[in-house]
Amino acid sequence: MAWAPRGLHKEGEAVVSFRIDRSGQVLDTRIMRSSGDVQLDRLALRMVRQAAPFPPPDGAISDERLGFTIPIHFH
Question: The pTM is what?
Fold first, then answer.
């Protein structure tokens, strides 16, 4: 909850999908499953964007873009 605004005491889980390029930069983000709360969904997307840049993928991975889908739990 370090990313949450002070006073935000909500619970839920949003599933976020995002893609990164070879340098670890986020190309796009989207909510795959909503938490049911627009504020939590927006916060989940912002968390992923603010975590960039991610570590570059291992050289053994040849894809130009990598996709991830992760659950983000708020409690």
Answer: 0.83
What whole-number distance in Å separates Cα of residue 33 and Cα of residue 58?
Answer: 29
| Class of domain 12-74 as given by CATH | alpha beta
Question: How many other β-carbons are positioned within 10 Å of the β-carbon of residue 58?
Answer: 6
**Position 3 pLDDT exceeds 80:** no
3-state secondary structure of 64: coil
Extract the tokens encoding 1.
Answer: 């909850």
Query: Are the C-beta atoms of residues 10 and 49 closer than 8 Å to each other?
Result: no
Distance, in Å, from the CA atom of 42 to the CA atom of 4, rounded to the nearest integer, reads 11
Report the alpha-carbon distance of residue 33 to residue 47 in Å, rounded: 16
Taking the C-alpha atoms of residue 63 and residue 51, their distance in angstroms, rounded to an integer, is: 21
